[in-house]
Write a structure and sequence with these properties.
Order of helices and strands: HHHHHHHHHHHHHHHHHHH
Helix content: over 70%
Number of helices: 19
Shape: globular
Length: 435
């Protein structure tokens, strides 16, 4: 792995300032701002899932056997656009101010969220989800890359865990807001309410300073990247295996997140009450698990090589049988099994993303996240939306969710296979960052 000297000096200063003792100035404020943005990121995503039955009823006939497959295309429209735009905008994030890209991206998707509520036809609603995908494509690769530059490799797992707590919390709030607002004010108002906070957060990004400038005091020229840097990334076995495991995990979480409202109705649970309970379970179980996963993996890193993959893989393997139990036992006992399954499903969030950052050179790290975003969504939730909708529409949601349990198992197995390669790949990048 080859660096030019200018980039090496920049990364050495990043390592000294963000590594040994304390993070760069403004690191914590950047973390909190990115955390808040990520929170609304997942609120926007899961509001759609919570409102899917109401949207389906607005645009399609009750006896349309293909209606669920069609509404599943709303998720596909977002993620296809997201996964295509992320690599393009990720390359820009490696070359220009990441904060500028994030600010513009957040404002775009916030305006598009408001547009979703105004959509008079299903086609226009699909178009607004496309715009949201473009916005999140600018944010997704740049945000974790900023955090990787601001914090040391010793604390990166915990920082990533804090950042990704937005997934369970934002998802839960999306379910709760969508369920309650949709039930009392109509589904369109749920989209209106999340627009103003997103616009404010986007504007705040324009006052932030890119950590690469803070480290080297040289904003006028972005360091050159060689083709070899990019090729080495895609030859890194732990990176590739991590992408496979995260793809399977994304199929699970994306598919469950989108179709859980339909599943709860299939099991005769009240939409408002059921989504509120599920949202609270997701907040508590997902929040604790996401934080705990990052802390455990960081603590074990010095004693257990490949700890980030160990924690991720074991968590998924434990979640698999618990999830199956939740499908067969009656409510309210099923809520307990769901709580435990969600807890272990989220255990990988911090460790897996930390591993991705640790095996990619800083020069191409935004591209590494962008490529991962493309793969995990192209073969993960994009496939889950229509496939689970097809299975559920032609059989029932129990069969669809039982299919998901097998994907959970495969995801855990993939991470355990990758344990063999992670330590050496991480060490190679650490060496490059400090020489």
């Amino acid at each position: 792995m080859i660096y030019n000297r200018r980039e090496a000096n920049c990364n050495r200063q990043l390592s000294m300032q963000a590594g040994g003792i304390k993070p760069l100035s403004g690191a914590r404020s950047a973390l909190f701002l990115l955390l808040a943005i990520n929170l609304f990121n997942y609120i926007d995503r899961q509001i759609l899932a919570a409102l899917e039955p109401d949207i389906r009823a607005t645009f399609f006939a009750p006896d349309d056997v293909h209606a669920m497959t069609k509404t599943g295309l709303l998720g596909d429209a977002f993620f296809v656009t997201y996964m295509i735009s992320a690599p393009i905008l990720g390359l820009l994030a490696d070359r220009f101010s990441r904060w500028l890209i994030i600010g513009c991206a957040v404002i775009l998707w916030s305006l598009a969220s408001g547009g979703s509520g105004l959509a008079p036809t299903f086609a226009i609603l699909v178009a607004t989800r496309v715009c949201i995908g473009i916005g999140e494509g600018g944010y997704g690769p740049a945000a974790p890359t900023i955090l990787s530059d601001l914090f040391s490799i010793q604390t990166r797992g915990r920082v990533m865990a804090v950042f990704y707590t937005a997934i369970p919390v934002g998802s839960a709030l999306g379910y709760v807001i969508g369920g309650l607002v949709g039930a009392h004010m109509g589904w369109r108002w749920a989209f209106y309410l999340v627009t103003p906070p997103g616009l404010l957060l986007g504007l705040l990004c324009f006052w932030q300073r890119d950590p690469r400038v803070a480290a080297d005091h040289l904003a006028q020229k972005s360091p050159r990247r060689s083709v070899r840097d990019y090729l080495n990334l895609f030859r890194t076995r732990s990176y590739l295996i991590n992408c496979i495991a995260m793809t399977l995990m994304t199929f699970v979480t994306g598919g469950l997140g989108f179709w859980v409202p339909a599943y709860l109705r299939y099991r005769d649970q009240s939409p408002a009450v059921g989504m509120t309970i599920f949202g609270l379970i997701t907040v508590v179980a997902g929040l604790v698990s996401t934080l705990l996963g990052g802390v455990i993996a960081d603590k074990l890193r010095s004693r257990l090589p490949g700890s980030y993959f160990w924690v991720s893989g074991i968590g998924m393997l434990i979640a698999c049988p618990i999830f199956i139990v939740a499908l067969y036992i009656p409510f309210p006992a099923a809520w307990i099994a769901m709580f435990l399954a969600i807890f272990f499903l989220f255990l990988n969030t911090g460790p897996s993303n930390t591993a991705l950052a640790n095996v990619s050179l800083p020069a191409v790290r935004a591209t590494a996240f962008a490529a991962s975003i493309f793969v995990i969504h192209a073969f993960g939730d994009v496939q889950a939306f229509w496939l689970l909708g097809y299975i559920g529409g032609h059989t029932n949601m129990h069969v669809a969710f039982l299919f998901v349990s097998g994907i959970i198992f495969l995801s855990g197995l993939a991470w355990l296979i990758g344990v063999k390669y992670l330590p050496a790949d991480t060490a190679a990048v650490e060496t490059a960052e400090t020489t």
